[in-house]
Amino acid sequence: MDDHKNAVRNPSGRGTKRAVVVGAGIAGLAAALRMHRAGWEVVVLERAPTRRSSGYLLNLHGPGYDAAERLGLVPALAPRDIGFFTSVLVHADGREKFTVPAAVAQAAVGDRALSLFRGDLESALYDAVAEHVDIRFGTTVRAVTQEPGAVEATLSDGNRLRADLLIGADGVHSRIRDLVFGPESDYLVELNHMVGAFPLDTVPEHVAEGVGTTFLGPRRTAAVMNLGPDRSSAFFTYRSPDPAAELALGAAPALTAAFGDLGRGVAEALRQLAADPADAYFDSVGQIVIDRWSSGRVVLLGDAAWCVTVFAGYGAALALDGADRLGAALAAHGDDLTTALDTWEQSLRPEVRKRQALARKGISRFAPPTRAHVWAGDLMLRAIQLPGIRGLVQRSIQRANN
């Protein structure tokens, strides 16, 4: 049946244009915001039944901060900024190795930076668009068909939506990519690591307030952050030769098997996870590598298109920047959709390639392959506290963000 609630308004370029955005995460909501401000009618489809509010910490600096500023998000995000916190490297039993003061990270990144929980960024985006676009939860796309003047999505509820543009912003396991570009196995490059992250219901007793503790060991990392009530969380990553087997175990059993020998803050976080695993994010780490991000009137955005992985630490920034650039390209080229999408992709491809390469190189920082690598990493972290070395690190970060 046709969707009469959102009847298409000339999806051939005459009158108000419509965009259907699949995915209500950072990339999808940012795209919805940018397209709405450009005068498009926007429908957002989200498979989950409700909004998600959990997730790990992310940083917006350099182009990521610039994109948030262009999208008008900084005033809403600034009160949610966690800021810089003290990092404590710990032994396996939780005893302190050494401390990296918050000032070290602040000096390296600069003032134009935001540290946020993923859910806080999603909430700010949602609040910016909720009254202006049609957001439908518990809805997926079953089929996509295209014709010269429009794209049509058949929805899980039986309705059909016709639009000028369909944006697949539904993550690394994108349904839109499967339907239009081919199966995930054609584009997913597994990095043979797992990642888990979850909020802590209670403040960790063994971690001082305003502190993040990190255990770095061969082939694994565990971090526990005490940022106060409702602001504390845990993050884990480890090497796995068989990611599918780890996913079959589930978050709590797999993370407990990989980190159950660790003490204090990590042990406490794992107990909380076992008691309530519902809000945990747990997945294999892989990059999406695809030759083209658009096909006709369908375009992929964010992790669905490129997924740089958590090892790059730049996924949210690229999602915001990619959405903003997409809106700008569509506005600049009017009804010439092909040129708009080509121009957008050409402008963003170099940055994505750079970030994916940095992620592959960065695996050894998150999961050092040997004890010698752990020792070298400790030495580097101690060294960056020296004024001269700190300046070199700051310049290196600035070059990476330009």
UniProtKB/TrEMBL annotation:
Per the record, the domain of life is Bacteria
SUPFAM superfamilies recorded for this chain?
FAD/NAD(P)-binding domain
Instruction: Please report the stretch or stretches of sequence annotated as the FAD-binding domain.
Output: 19-350
The record's annotation in Gene3D superfamilies points to: D-Amino Acid Oxidase, subunit A, domain 2, FAD/NAD(P)-binding domain
In terms of Pfam families, this protein maps to: FAD_binding_3 (PF01494)
Q: Which InterPro entries match?
A: FAD-bd, FAD/NAD-bd_sf, FAD_aromatic-hydroxylase
Q: What is this protein called?
A: FAD-dependent oxidoreductase
